[in-house]
Amino acid sequence: MANLAFTYRDQGRWKEAEELGVQVIDIKKRVLGAEHPDTLISIANLASTYTQQARWKEAEELWVQVIDTSKKILGAEHPDTLTSMANLALTYRDQGRWKEAEELWVQVIDISKKILGAEHPDTLISMANLALTFWSQGRWKEAEELGVQVIDISKKTLDAEHPIILTSIANLALTYRDQGRWKEAEELEVQMIDIRKKTLG
């Protein structure tokens, strides 16, 4: 049932995805309990369905519920808890709720560095998302510093054509371009094209 809900969601068949998602949650709550990790995953999936439709209030309520229960059952430092916190931060950012998004990203990054390490892809993705949050507010200096940091760490630990590197280079190029720093933006964009040519042919 959960897989079918995903299929509906991926097709933009929101009503069917939601109805099935709610059914899956009800069954899992009844069979496994409201605090079981599988139940939390199903609630998170429904929150994602709401997020993709910009149904912010419903998405936020579910993300907060998942985070609170995850912290209680799995712990504040569990990867599933961090993922839900990151998803709530994205929900805030997509609404322009910068302060709340930033606070959550900082928490996620701090815990990720402690548990996973500063070079782990999940940590780098969260850092890149915080950089984008800065960029969205026109906070160029902070966006640039964090973007450069993500690129530098990624280049040491990941393949040159890893999506994190390509996305971070593109985001940093945007940061330069939005400031009218054309030469630096162009250099990064050329670098990105070269990497793509090597990997895609």
Would you kindly provide a written description of the structure presented here, covering whatever features stand out?
- This protein is an all-alpha fold and 201 residues long.
- The protein is built from 10 helices and no strands.
- The chain has helices spanning 2-10, 14-31, 37-52, 56-73, 79-94, 98-115, 121-136, 140-157, 163-178, 182-200.
- α6 (98-115) runs antiparallel to α7 (121-136) and α7 runs parallel beside α9.
- It starts with a helix and ends with a helix.
- The model has no long low-confidence stretch (mean pLDDT 91).
Binned, the helix content reads over 70%
The sequence of SSEs as H and E is: HHHHHHHHHH
Characterize the biggest β-sheet: none
Structural Rg: 19 Å
Q: Identify low-pLDDT runs.
A: none
User: What average pLDDT do the residues reach?
Assistant: 91
In total, the number of strands is: 0
The rounded distance between the terminal residues' Cα atoms is 40 Å
Strand content bin = under 5%
Total of DSSP H or I helical runs spanning 4+ residues? 10
Q: Characterize the overall form.
A: elongated
